[in-house]
Specification:
six-stranded mixed sheet; 3 domains; about 325 residues; single chain; globular
């Protein structure tokens, strides 16, 4: 019976792999076709004297023709998407790379972004992290790229030890925890909410993170201490410890995290591990406290705010501008 079950399982795996390859091949072929259609539309548009009016009429007529021959999927709006796809990725080599890695639903979201740097970031991260369409949409809406940029100093001021800044966000957006929008929050409730939605929290942290422990005890000869959350980043090759604070950042919080990082390096860090990173995840912080504490210039300690709800674009831009000024002042 076991042999028969194994035999059936092998056959099922073969078929599943074949279907996956077939879906991937169809996706790649269709994405390539959309790019070629977009290219041809742009070429045809450029022959007209009055491009805007001519282009609209061209797409309307083409939509009717294609719909009558091929059915759904060739509306005026979709043809505009094909055109935008080509204009966003005019390099055919890049197009073929995207065809084999990303689905059309991913690309429709990414090509609406205005910044070439943001487009490159979301294409790269979607491929490497294998984001679903929903995960990509959430990261775009929460401005993941902009929040990473907020932790960066000017390139000329970055040292080789500062490369892990690319992994630190400020603020972190935790709307998926479904916490109350306002009011005092217990740290234990925040911690439990994160554990309940650990997969989403790992996605928000970024690439390379894996969960290690909650309330990890580190002990000296005379005392015991408990770290709220411990992660390991296999890309940075280091532990990342997080201390949760549901009120405003204080100098006592910073001193405590500084001690935790030193103790963790001494007691838990392996020979092949890079220095431990400590992140204080707090409700709010004062620029003066940050600037005149051991956080200033320290490549192992960071303080990041968390937001309970998904901010509007205007709110987030204002917050990022404030954080950027602070980072550049400290650099």
């Amino acid at each position: 019976m076991n042999a028969l079950t194994s035999f059936h399982s092998d056959i099922k795996n073969i078929l599943e792999q074949a279907r996956h390859k077939a879906r991937s091949a169809v996706n790649a072929a269709m994405v390539e076709a959309y790019w070629l259609i977009g290219q041809r539309i742009v070429e045809e548009e450029q022959r007209g004297d009055s491009r805007a009016v001519y282009g609209q009429r061209l797409l309307e007529n083409l939509s009717k023709e294609l719909s009558s021959n091929f059915g759904k999927g060739f509306s005026y709006a979709n043809l505009r998407n094909f055109r935008q796809f080509y204009l966003t990725f005019p390099d055919k080599t890049i197009c073929y790379t995207l065809c084999s890695k990303l689905g059309w639903s991913h690309l429709r979201l990414i090509m609406r972004l205005e910044s070439p740097e943001a487009i490159e970031y979301y294409c790269k991260e979607t491929r490497e992290q294998q984001w679903t369409v929903r995960q990509l949409e959430r990261n775009i809406k929460s401005h993941s790229y902009r929040r990473l940029l907020a932790t960066q100093t000017e390139p000329s001021k970055l040292s080789s030890d500062s490369l892990h800044l690319e992994f630190i966000k400020d603020p972190y957006v935790l709307e998926f925890l479904q916490l109350p929008e306002t009011g005092q929050l217990k740290e234990s409730r925040l911690e439990q909410a994160i554990i309940n939605e650990l997969q989403k929290f790992l996605l928000e942290l970024g690439k390379g993170f894996s969960f290690v422990a909650r309330q990890m005890r580190i002990s000296t000869e005379t005392s015991h201490f408990y770290i709220d959350l411990v992660f390991y980043n296999y890309l940075l090759k280091c532990f990342v410890i997080i201390d949760l604070k549901t009120d405003k950042l204080s100098h006592q919080d910073i001193g405590q995290m500084d001690m935790y990082v030193r103790m963790f390096d001494d007691l838990k860090r392996g020979e092949d591990d890079n220095p431990t990173i400590g992140i204080i995840l707090c409700d709010s912080k004062d620029e003066t406290i940050v600037k005149y504490s051991v956080l200033d210039g320290n490549q192992q300690l960071f303080a990041s705010k968390y937001q309970r709800v998904l901010p509007t674009e205007e709110e987030l831009i204002a917050e990022l501008a404030r954080e950027k000024r602070l980072i550049n002042t400290q650099a």
